[in-house]
Amino acid sequence: MSEDEYAPPYRITPTIITLIEQIGEMLGRLSFSSDMKNLRLRRIHRIQTIHGSLAIEGNTLSEEQISTILDGKPVIAPPREVQEVRNAIKAYDEFQHWHPERQSDVLKAHKTLMLGLLDAPGHYRRGGVGVGSKSGIVHVAPPAGRVPELMANLLGWLEKTDAHALIKSCVFHYEFEFIHPFADGNGRMGRLWQTLILAQWNPIFSQIPVESMVYARQQEYYKAIAESTQAAESTPFVAFMLQTILARMIRSSTEIEQVIEQVTEQVGALIRVLKDGARGTRALMAALGLKHRPTFMYDYLQPALASGLVEMTQPDAPRSPTQKYRLTPKGRNVLATGGGHQYRGSAGEIGAGW
Length: 354
Fold this sequence. Notes:
6 strands, 2 domains, Fic-like fold, 5% strand, two-stranded antiparallel sheet
C-alpha cells in the first residue's frame, strides 16, 4: 500500500501477537475436530449468534423464541423484535455470498438486516448521529456528508491491506462503528461484517458465535470502543476483540462433547413422521409444521441421513423432483425402542430422543 493511501491507525502490541498465536492454536484444534460439523452444534451456534448480536441492541427475545422463529413457527413477542430476528436469520443465511470489501454488499446486508425497521434500509444516513449511554453522549459520528468518502476509504483499505485477517477484521469493526454510516443497525452490521471477514479467511468462523461472547462482555465492548476513540487508534479494541474471540473458541471446544450427548428432538420428530411410509420434502415439512427449508435440511433431514436412520428412495438421483425419504432398518429399530429412549451413535452422530 502506497504512503498516500488511507490506512486506519493501530499498533501491533506483544499482547496482540500472543493472542493471535493462541487463536491459531485453537483454530488447529477446532478445524481438526470433525464434531465442529455436527449440525446440532451449528444450529445452537447460529441461535447464539443471532441472540447475542440483537440482545446488545435491546432485543428481549430468548434463544428458545429465536429457535421457534428459525423453525418458521409463530411466537408471542413484540412485532419489531420478531422482525429483527427474521432479518438476522436471513442475513446469516446469505452472508457468505457477500464480499466484505464491496460497498454494494454492505448496503445489501444493511437492507436485509433492517428491512421493515427503517424508512430507508440499505442507504447511508443523511443526518447527524451520536452514540449515547446512561451518562450521556459518548460518541458523535462524523457528519453525514463525509460518510460515503470515509466508507470508500475503509473498504479500499480492507481490499488492499496485507494485515492478518484477525487484525483487519477487528480494525474494520472499530472503524465502522466510529463512522456509524447508517441511521440505525450499525452495531449488528459491524459484528456481522467482522464475522464475514473472518469466515472468508477460515470458514470455521461462520460456526463460532463470537457475538454471544460480545454480549456477555457488553460493557467491556463499549469501553474498548471508547478507549480506542480516546487514543485515536483501534489498538485497545483490537486487543479486546481478540480476547473475546479466543474465549469463545475455548468455550466452543468444550461444547462439542456436550452437544453430542444431547437429545435431538428434531431427528426424533422426523422419524415419527416417516413411520407410516416414505414422503417427499414438502410433505415432510408440512407434517412437521416447518416453513424454513434450510432449517428442515440442516436440523432434521441431514442429521437423520448422516446417522443412517433415514435414506433416499432414489440415492442415485439425489436432486430428483420425485425424491422421497424413508426409514432404514436402523431407523425403524430406533423408533421401536423410543418412548423416552435416547439414541446415541458413534462419535459425530447425533443423538435423537423422543
